Amino acid sequence: MADQKYAWLPANLQPDDANPDWMNKADNAWQLIAATLVGLQSVPGLVILYGSIVKKKWAVNSAFMALYAFAAVLVCWVGWGYHLSFGNSFLPFLGKIDDALDQHDLLKPAFLGKFPSATMVFFQFVFAAITLILIAGALLGRMNFIAWMLFVPLWLTFSYTVGAYSIWCPTGWLSTMGLIDYSGGYVIHLSSGVAGFTAAYWVGPRATRDRERFPPNNILLMLAGAGILWMGWTGFNGGDPYVASIDASLAVLNTHICAATSLLSWLLLDILFFEKPSVIGATQGMITGLVCITPAAGVVHGWAAIIMGVMSGCIPWFTMMVLHKKIWLLKQVDDTMAVFHTHAVAGSLGGILTGFFANPKLCRLFYLVPNWEHYIGLAYGIHNGNAKAGFKQMGIQLLGIVFIVKLNVVVTSLICLLIRLVVPLRMSEEELLGGDDAVHGEEAYALWGDGEKFEKSVLNSVYGAEDPKNRNEGV
């Protein structure tokens, strides 16, 4: 009877042993903490950042796009997304859906054997979720919310899983070639930047008045969201060795060095060319630094992280402030949060610099492989008399960029065209004019006379708000 009672347990897990021998408690604890930090980057980090950096009339809609994506991705991820991204090989760029995610699967060791698969599923989910939320940044202020509800599961299924399997799964084709993407410079940032830009092309621009003037409704709250995003990157890059290792410590320190250097570089450029220290500009510089170091975080030395920070503060600044005004295609697409520059440009830059600065000894700590022909940056290849391996690594890094760009342009376009057959991609003119109240029947701030407008909302009857006639008069 006892054997039947516990028949659902994996063979190597005893009913009285919640901590099996194969599990490392420290690694499991750190992985769960890292996953939670990454989750906080989205909820509440980007929810707050999006809701405060946009015009007041779009605060609710922008924050809600992020919140919805977080929830929708989780349901799709445990249903099929995780296995497509990390399951047994089905194609060189895609896994196959095996058993359902039940106790048999979730309580077994993850592929590194230091913590349960349940931890791995959760950790990888928060990365998938933030990718969709970053795409939303390019679409704020005009995408039909129903269309966004359809876009999230479709893009996760047909684009994100392909990139994740190809680059991160040990049997993925770019992974076996030796592409270095420590924590998502390709899978997350380049993907979201290209997909966001492509989707913004198909959805169309914001209303003319919004494009001409789009002031943040609360810069202090924007900084609070940005701060959560920055600190959450400790888990973003520190969790990817999948062990509480010395490499994780190095990745965390490099992450913050690069972000700080990039912020200061962007700030100095703003002062030199615009004569004003912009807090919004500094926030953009912080983000580009975090994005740039992501593919390299644990495989470069601190001095390289500083150089990457200077470049990530200058090159995306140049593309955003100078090239954006000169290149026809960039001028045609309304990318609300400049996701193309902060994520696609910075992510590509990070991938290329990783191919140049990657230290082979640090790569061995991360990838746990003895093969010196793989994972050697060009700078070290030339220094060690093995320039051929260094150039090969650079070629693989560039190939990864080409693959991710093509994948996301094609798949995102097809998804947008498919959705357009069902519902409009873009809000109606009435909704574009009315903003949150027209789309959701809610507003972000009920201050002074604005509160009267909220009291008339149709949602009052749904959620049982009291009759305004019964309220006491006053402020």
Notable characteristics:
475 residues; mainly alpha; Ammonium transporter fold; two-stranded antiparallel ribbon; 22 helices; globular; RhesusRHD; Ammonium transporter; Ammonium_transpt; membrane; Ammonium/urea_transptr
Structural write-up:
This protein is mainly α. The chain has one domain: Ammonium transporter AmtB like domains (Ammonium transporter fold). It contains 22 helices and two strands. The protein has helices spanning about 1-5, 25-55, 60-85, 105, 115-135, 145-170, 175, 185-205, 210, 220-240, 245-275, 280-295, 300-320, 330, 340-355, 360-365, 380-385, 385-420, 430-435, 435-440, 450-455, 460-465; strands spanning about 90, 95. The protein has a two-stranded antiparallel ribbon. Strand 1 (about 90) and strand 2 (about 95) form a beta hairpin. Helix 5 runs parallel beside helix 8. It is globular, with a radius of gyration of 23 Å. The N and C termini lie far apart (about 70 Å).
Question: Summary?
Answer:
By secondary structure, the chain is mainly alpha-helical. It is 67% helix and 1% strand.
Q: Mean pLDDT, as a whole number? A: 88
Relevant CATH superfamily: Ammonium transporter AmtB like domains
Contiguous uncertain segments of 5+ residues? 449-475
Total strand segments: 2
What's the alpha carbon Rg, rounded to whole Å?
23 Å
Number of helices: 22
The structural class is mainly alpha
Helix and strand pattern = HHHEEHHHHHHHHHHHHHHHHHHH
CATH architecture: Orthogonal Bundle
| Proportion of residues in extended strands | under 5%
* Global geometry: globular
Query: How many angstroms does the end-to-end distance come to?
Result: 69 Å
Q: Please identify the top-level CATH class.
A: Mainly Alpha
How are strands sequenced across the largest beta sheet? 1-2
Helix-residue proportion: 55-70%
In terms of quaternary structure, the protein is single chain
Look up the CATH topology.
Ammonium transporter fold
Biggest sheet overview? 2 strands, antiparallel
Number of domains: 1
Subcellular location: Cell membrane
GO molecular function, one term: ammonium channel activity
Domain Ammonium transporter AmtB-like: 29-445
Main location: membrane
